[in-house]
Amino acid sequence: xxxxxxxxxxxxxxxxMGHGIVQTALMNGYKVAMRDIEQRFVDKGxxxxxxxxxxxxxxxxxxxxxxxxxxxxxLETTVSIEDAVKDAxxxxxxxxxxxxxxxxxxxxxxxxxxxxxxxxxxxxNMSITEIAKATNRPEKVVGMHFFNPAVRMKLVxxxxxxKTSEETMQVTYDLAKNIGKAPVRVEKDSPSFIYNRVNAPxxxxxxxxxxxxxxxxxxxxxxxxxxxxxxxxxxxxxxGVDIACDSLKYLHDKLSPEYSSTAFEQIVNAGTLGxxxxxxxxxxxxxxxxxxTSKATKEFGLNDLIALQVNEATKVLDEGxxxxxxxxxxxxxxxxxxxxPFQLAKGIGYAELTKRxxxxxxxxxxxxxxxxxxxxxxxxxx
Length: 382
Description:
- The protein is of the alpha/beta class and about 375 residues long.
- It has 17 helices and 8 strands.
- The protein has 3 domains: about 5-185, NAD(P)-binding Rossmann-like Domain (Rossmann fold, 3-Layer(aba) Sandwich), CATH 3.40.50.720; about 195-295, N-(1-d-carboxylethyl)-l-norvaline Dehydrogenase, domain 2 (Orthogonal Bundle); about 300-375, Orthogonal Bundle (N-(1-d-carboxylethyl)-l-norvaline Dehydrogenase, domain 2).
- Helices cover about 50% and strands about 10% of the residues.
- An 8-stranded mixed beta sheet has the order 3-2-1-4-5-6-7-8, sandwiched between helices.
- The longest helix is centred in the first third of the chain and has 20 residues, at about 40-60.
- The radius of gyration is 21 Å and the shape is globular.
């Protein structure tokens, strides 16, 4: 299959990610089927698409009302997997990050989708190889990880499972480009792929700061608010504390037992999941929270976060998850903005960043924070 043969895309899941992916495909000329388990979820997804098209595109003069209507006319909705995928050329799964749910969906996709259809998963960290085992076509199963919000964020991680064919990788990469994204190939099926893997030690740092009650989330965020679109704890709130907690648990099981989630679990158990519930580390009930920068801690600085990111990026490179430093930098830039870790390291210097990693590793007694030999050598060229 090549990308020109893709006429219809089916998306499993009508939640924030699902309907965002659907909207992106509609806006780039594709016929799309959106499916969820209940009609109320489908209806909510459709309304989310309509609201987004009106607020961010029609109202701002980026598209006409007629263009919006034409896009919506290409949208099919259903609660039946069979109806959604029976004539689809490419399927994207965007269901909850629970392996059993994903495997169940992929078993049905394999049963009902055309034999030559590609089956992609939007998972942010789970094994493509494991998901593919639910099908009889593992060569056609691939990771296609969009970032939230899918309509606006540029990065798509295209991840190769153990049996994913090069044809499947290429058509997925080309499709991502066709819908206006900046795809990056992930050459090895490894937990959290590139973007989330590079940022995983920062998430662990946030967890350990909470566990040890070193500073409050607002004191920590206050030190970063001036140089980031969203400060670290604020971003966790925005994405969902439950999502961060699940990611840490997965990393604990698949990457290192040092990835703890105790403090995040307590917050999740209290039902304060962040923006989605109106309260997490901050109160979101009146809109985006105000962070008092006068409370900013001096115990941690931007170079601490950069050091952890660069160190983990060297692991991603050494393990063959990414092919080049440029791919890692491009993933970070297009997934969150700013600069890539290796570009930042070039300016700051590996000696300084190595020192920061050593200090954090000693302070928290965590091997994950220890600088790699590649980090210490500091010879990576970008």
